[in-house]
Amino acid sequence: MPRKCRKCSQPAVINMRQHKLALCADHFSEWIVAQTERFIKKYRMFTREDRILVAVSGGKDSLALWDVLLQLGYEADGLYLGLGIDGGFGYSDESQAMCEAFAAQHPETTLHILDIPGAYGESIPQMATRTRRGRGKPCSVCGLVKRHEMNRLAHDLGYNVLATGHNLDDEVAVLFQNTLNWQVGYLARQYPVLPEGDGFARKVKPFCRFYERETATYAIVRDIEYIYDECPFSEGATTIYYKELLNKLEADKPGAKLHFYLNFLRARDKEGLFADWKEEKVELHPCENCGQPTTAPGLCTFCRMLPEEVRPRVRTAQPIAFKMIARG
Ligand code: AMP
Ligand code: FES
Ligand code: ZN
Ligand code: ZN
Predict the structure, then answer these.
(1) From the CB of 233, is ligand 2 less than 6 Å away?
(2) DSSP-assigned letter for residue 197
(3) 70: nearest Cα among 117, 28, 102
(4) Distance (Å) from CA 138 to ligand 1 centroid
(5) Which is deepest, 11, 47, 238, 292, by most CB within 10 Å?
C-alpha cells in the first residue's frame, strides 16, 4: 500500500521513518525549505545581510542547497572548482555542466568557475602524482587544493560566508571516525558553523541534519539535474566504509544516525562537552606567497605544493582563470 502525504493525502514521495512523516512532492519540498531556514537560525549561520558563496560540486547536495537558499531569498552565488578529473567518463566536465545548467536557470545568481589545470597547469591527479602525496590517491591533494581555493576565492570575491553541501550521512561518518580514534581536536571543532576569523569566511553546513536520501529526493522533486556518479577516486575511501557500516545500523534502528549526531550537538551545547577544551594557540602568519594565514613558516602547504615557477600565479589566478558566468 503506497503511503499518503500526512498533510494532503496525495501519494507520498518519501517516508521519513525517523520523523514518522510521509509527504508528497510539494509538501516535502516545502518541509525541506522550512527546516533549512530553521537550522540556519538555530545555529546562527547567516542572515539576509550576509553574502554567501555556495561551493557547488555538481552533486545533489550542493545544488539542492543552492536552490533552497535562493528560494529563501538569501544572496547566494556559486563556486565550482574544476579539478581535471576524468575517470573515463569526464567526471569534472560533467560536474561542471550540471552547475552551469543550474546557473542558467537562475539568472539572478552568478556561478564562479575556476579551472584548476587552467590556473596552475596541472590537474589534481597530476599534482598528486608529482608530489607523491596520499599513496597513489589524489584525495589528500584534492582536499588541500579545494580548501585553499575556496578560502582564497571567498575572501577575494567579498563573500563572508562559505556554504558546503555536507549532509547528515557525511557528518555522521566523520563523527564516527573521529570518535573511534578519539580525535579530540577534530571533535571539538565539528559543528554546523565555524566562525570567521583571520581572513577566513565563516563556514556553514545548512544541510547537516538531512539524510542523503532526503537531499536526493529534494533534487529529484525539484527537477535539479545532478551528477549521479561519485568521484572515481572515492572508491575504497575510509569514510565510505564507515558510511556502509552506519547504513547497516540505520536499517536496524531507523533514526540512529540522526540521534548520534543530534545528541553529540546537544552534549556540546547543553552539557558542556568540550567547553574546557582549549585549542592550542598556534601562531598564524601570512603565507609569503599568497597571504593566506598559515601555521607553517614561510609558505602555506598549498603554495609549497606548487612548483616554484607556478607559485606567483596564485596571486593572479583570478582574472585569468575566472570565468564569471552572469546570466540574464
Ligand atoms: P565532498 O568533499 O566531495 O564530499 O564534498 C563536500 C562539499 O564540498 C560539497 O557538498 C560541496 O559543497 C563542496 N565541493 C566538493 N567538490 C567541489 C568542487 N569541485 N567545487 C566546489 N565545491 C565542491
Ligand atoms: Fe577530489 Fe575525488 S573529488 S579526489
Ligand atoms: Zn501533500
Ligand atoms: Zn600560500
Answers:
(1) yes
(2) B
(3) 102
(4) 15
(5) 292
Q: For domain 42-279+305-327, give its CATH number from 3.40.50.620, 3.40.47.10, 3.40.50.720, 3.60.10.10.
A: 3.40.50.620
User: Counting Cβ atoms within 10 Å, is residue 238 exposed (0-12), middle (13-18) or buried (19+)?
Assistant: exposed
Cα 303 to middle of ligand 4, angstroms: 4
**204-252 pLDDT, tens digit each:** 999 999 999 999 999 999 999 999 999 999 887 888 999 999 999 999 9
Residue-wise pLDDT for 146-171, tens only, equals: 999 999 999 999 999 999 999 999 99
How far is ligand 1, taken at its centre, from the CA of residue 56, in Å?
A: 6
Residue with cell 527546516: 35
Q: Three-state SS across 99-166?
A: HHHHHHCCCCCEEEEEEHHHHHCCCHHHHHHHHCCCCCCCHHHHHHHHHHHHHHHHHHCCCCEEECCC
Who lines ligand 1 at CB under 6 A?
55-57, 61-62, 79-81, 83, 146, 164-166, 170
pTM summary value: 0.95
- What is the distance between the alpha carbons of residues 13 and 152, in angstroms, rounded to a whole number? 40
